[in-house]
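User: Hi! I'm working on a homework problem where we have to compare a predicted structure to a textbook description. Could you give me the structure for the chain below?
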Amino acid sequence: MRPFELLQPASLREATRLLDREDTTVRAIGGGTALMLMMKSGFFRPRRLVSLRAIEPRFRTIAAEGDGTLHIGAMATLSAIEQSPEIARHAPAIARAMRRLANVRVRNVATIGGHLAHADPHLDLPPLLVALGTRLRIMGRAGERTIAVEELFRGYLETTLLPEELIAEVIVPPQGTRGAIYLKWTARSADDWPALGVAVALDRSEARIVVGAATEKPMRLAAAEAALGSARDEKALRRAGDAAADEAVLLSDQHGSAPYKRELLRVLVRRALEGALNP
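Assistant: Happy to help. Predicted structure tokens:
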């Protein structure tokens, strides 16, 4: 790796001021699990890295409001999320999904803010967070804004964040009576990148069905949701799976061909709906 400048601001606001709108070789670094691999391979050669490890401790906290709304600081590690009693109580689908997300060494270091900002379509959490109706609080030089998590992703490794913006907080709304689940299918080990991931959140009247890994970004399947409607019987679940397979634009890669993933999607949507109905 070529030499680079490393800065360590004491606040998230200061970190945003050290980023550069005009220079793409200036980046923030949290856990660094993805960024360091990109640097070692020569894919990314920074001029400056802005470390977030010394920013305010509140950005590492996980807290719940009285109604069940979860506030997850962007610097909370994936292991902290996995082990959080607040997550287990108010969004158990997230806690369950963490057990097969990468491996414990990665989870101990990687942060949720970096996980989302990396925008790799194979990541496990984005489809589930979309299904749960999650929002992000974004901080930049011009102030703060809040967006739905699906609005973050523009394409492969590409987000809608401005160069001087950083994710500050992940906000998961109260789940109420909704059941939720994330299912992934891997071509190799259980904790490997998924060939396909499906997230579902539903109650007796509404469903959110999201596919990831086989698409350029998490994709909500509106036609599958419409095909399911308010019915919850086996016929409706199969109908939703068929609609999902017809609707999704899937990509071939080393994990499998698009036609193979289409059949996986047909099956996983039905299984995810069953799982969400019977958590």
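For your comparison, note the following. The domain at 57-172 is CATH 3.30.465.10 (Uridine Diphospho-n-acetylenolpyruvylglucosamine Reductase; domain 3). Residues 175 and 261 are 29 Å apart (CA to CA). Good luck with the assignment!
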